[in-house]
Design a protein that fits this description.
Helices cover 39% and strands 6% of the residues. It has 216 residues and is mainly alpha-helical. It has three domains: 55 residues, no CATH class; 79 residues, no CATH class; 52 residues, no CATH class. A three-stranded parallel beta sheet has the order 4-3-5, covered by helices on one side. Strand 3, helix 5 and strand 4 form a beta-alpha-beta unit. Helix 1 packs across helix 2 and helix 3 runs antiparallel to helix 8. It is globular, with a radius of gyration of 20 Å. The chain starts with 5 loop residues before the first helix and ends with a helix.
Amino acid sequence: MQDYTQIEILLFFKLGKGPGALFLAGDPAQSVVEGTDFRFDEIRSVGYYITESNPNKRRLIPEKPRTVNVNFRSHAGILNCASGFLRLLFDYFPGSAQALERDYGLFKGARPGVFQGVSVEQLLALIKKIPMVPILVHDDEVKKWKQSLGGYSNVYGIAEAKGLEFKTVIILDFFADLPKSVQKPWRELLLGRERTFEFRNKHPLVETHLVSTSNK
């Protein structure tokens, strides 16, 4: 539900014949649609609105959501990395998403490999060894990288890849393709050199990067 507005949630209630007929799930840390700022309270307020004429049905609107913290889609290594970015997001931009307990995986998983200074030729050779491997880049850089890789079709923007599942993935130039104006702020953020209040006022664009990073 994290990518829907309140009016769309109201439509779901209408189509589902009101409270008690729907099972709604969402993750406030995974909202990637610009203009939406998801809170569970927003669903509850829509439920209260739709039951205004029938107070007896208001008991069907839960006071608190039931949370699930065991993640079956990703291994613990990926979840720990995402949790690290979420901690930064909640510390520096506390109003950006509703903080939940961290997710836990059932197994540790393989460690990622980090490659620096890789040429396009080396990347093409790697693609041949891992056929059809998805490559994730910033949304504005998809066209550039598809052309650079000779029309390779499995290049996705971060937001575009939301909800998709891959066994293996390459995240390409996440920091190098950031605007120059935020590369240094990102470095200072990861090194713990920034004060929270000053940072969120000076570099609001980093908030969107943190959301997309922790989401994927």
